[in-house]
Amino acid sequence: MSDLSKLQSWKNLEIKSRQISKISLNQMFKEDKDRFKKYSITIKDLLFDYSKNHIDKNLFQSFVQLLNDVDLNRKIKALFNGEKINSSEDRPVMHFLLRGSYNSKTKNIYNNTVKKCLIKMKSFYEDFKDGKIGVKKIKNIINIGIGGSDLGPKMVCNALEHYSKNQINIFFISNIDPNNMTEVLKKLDPEESIFIISSKSFGTIETLKNGLECIKWFNNKSKSNFSEHFFAVTSNIEKAKSFGIKEKNIFPIWDWVGGRYSFWSAVGLPIMLKIGYNNFLTLLKGAKDIDYHFQNEPFDKNIPVILACIGIIYNNFFKCETQAILPYDEYLKYLPMYLQQADMESNGKSISNDSKKVKYQTGPIIWGDIGTNGQHAFFQLIHQGTKYIPCDFIGFSKSNNEKSDLHEILLSNLIGQTSALMKGKTLKEAQIEVNDKKKKSNYKILLNSKLFEGNKPSTTILFNKLNPYNLGRLIAIYEHKIFVQGCIWNINSFDQWGVELGKELANKIHKIFKSKDFENIDSSSKGQLDFILKTRSS
What we know:
Layout: H1 8-20, H2 25-31, H3 35-38, E1 40-43, E2 46-49, H4 57-69, H5 72-80, H6 107-129, E3 140-144, H7 148-159, E4 169-173, H8 178-185, E5 193-198, H9 205-221, E6 230-234, H10 237-242, E7 250-252, H11 269-275, H12 277-296, H13 303-317, E8 322-327, H14 335-347, E9 365-368, H15 379-384, E10 391-398, H16 406-423, H17 427-434, H18 443-449, E11 458-465, H19 468-489, H20 497-515, H21 523-537
Parallel strand pairs: 3-4, 3-5, 5-6, 6-7, 8-9, 8-10, 10-11
Antiparallel strand pairs: 1-2, 2-11
Helix pairs in contact: 1-4, 7-11, 7-14, 11-12, 12-19, 13-19, 14-19, 17-18
C-alpha cells in the first residue's frame, strides 16, 4: 500500500492528530494527574518518558490499528527470520545476528559466520593486549572507513572512553580531503601504529585512496613490513589481498550487514581494542536485550514502536520537517551525527516497496548537539522560533566522572528544558518578571519578548549510567524505531541508492580533471572546473 491516505486508520490518525493539536500539553497534565504513569515505561534502569507528547489513548489506538494494517508483526518476524526484506538488493537484513539475536531459522548462519568471526576477533584482541602485534608496543589505532564504517566506531569509542582498557589512541580517517589524513599521520610513529581498513566491497574510493596513501606513508617512514600493521574488514577477501593485506589480517563482513548497522561486527574492532573484549560483548548484550523487547512486547509497551509512532505524528500530521537529538553527556557528542546517518540514509526515500512514488512525507531531517552546549546555540529557535521541532532528550542518572554537583546541574538543565518547552511562559508570568520596568520605553517589546508559547513536545530517555550495556540498548532502540517507520511508510530502509549517483558523477568529473576535456558537461560545472584549474596553477 503506497498510498497510506487510503487506509481508514491513517485517516483516523489525521483527524485525531488535528484534534489533539488544539489541546496544550500543559492542559493534558492538569486534566490527568496520572499522565506520566500512563505514558512512560521503566525497564532495567531505563526510563522512557513520552508523556510530554501530543498523544492520548484514542490516538494510540488508531496507531495500533495502523500497525496492524501495515502488518508490522509479520514484518518484524520477516526481519528476524532472515527474509529478503531489502528488496532492491535482494538481500536479508540481519545485523541483529551480530549481537546473538538468532532463532531456529538463523541459528546456523550465526554459528557459521558471526560466532567464528567473534572467535577470531577475540584472538586478535588477546594478541594485541599481549603485545604480539607489530614490532613495538602499539599505541595508535587508525580506522580508515567512511559512512557507517567511520561514524559507528567513532561514536562508540568516544561514548565509552571511560571504559578504555588500554592506553591507546584511536584516530579516524574518513574524508578524502587530504587535511584529514595529514593531521592524523603527523602525530604518529608508524611502528607504534596499526591501520584497519573497513570497506564491505573494498571498492569505496575514499577508503581505498586513503588506505594507499597510508601505506605509502608507512613505507616512507618505517623499515618494517607494512603488511604486519595493516588489517581489513571486508566481504571481498581477494580484493583486500591484492591490496596487500595478509589473509590472516582480514576479518569478514557479510552482504546482509548494512554499513550504518555494522559497528556490531568486525567493523567494531577499534571499539574492542579500546574497551576490551568483555565490554564489547556487553555492548552486544544491551542491543540483544532490546531485540528481544522489540520482538516480544505488545505495541503499547514497546519502546521502539512507540518512539516510531511519535515520530509519525510530528512528521506526517504536524508537518514537522526536523527532529532534534539532544544527549546530555559529553561522551555522546557524535550520537546526533551517527543517528543522522542511520535515520536519513535509511528512510530518506520517495519510492515505495511497490515501486510507486509515495504521496506523503518519509524520513525527517535529524540534527542536534550535546547539552548544555546546544542550549547556548539553537535552543532559542526551538523555544521561540517559528519552527515546530520535536526533541529527544537523552541522559544518565549518574556521571562516569562525578565532580561536585556538576552532573546534578546538567540533569537539572535536561529536565528544566523539557519542562520549559512544554509549559512556556504566560503573559501574567512575564508581567511579574518585568513589573519594575513599566515606565521604561522598551517595556512592551521586553514583555512580549519574554513570552513563550510552550506546547513544544519532547521525549526523554534516561538510563542509570552511560556504560556499554546501556549504549547497546540505546542504539538498538533507534535502529528498530527507524525500521518501524520504514514499515509504516512502506519503503526499503536498507538500501542507499541516492548515495551512488554522486559517486558516479564524481568519478566522471575526476576524469575530466585529469583530461581537461570539458565536452558534455554543464556550464556551471565547467565554470567551476575552469576556476579551480586556473587557481591551482597560479
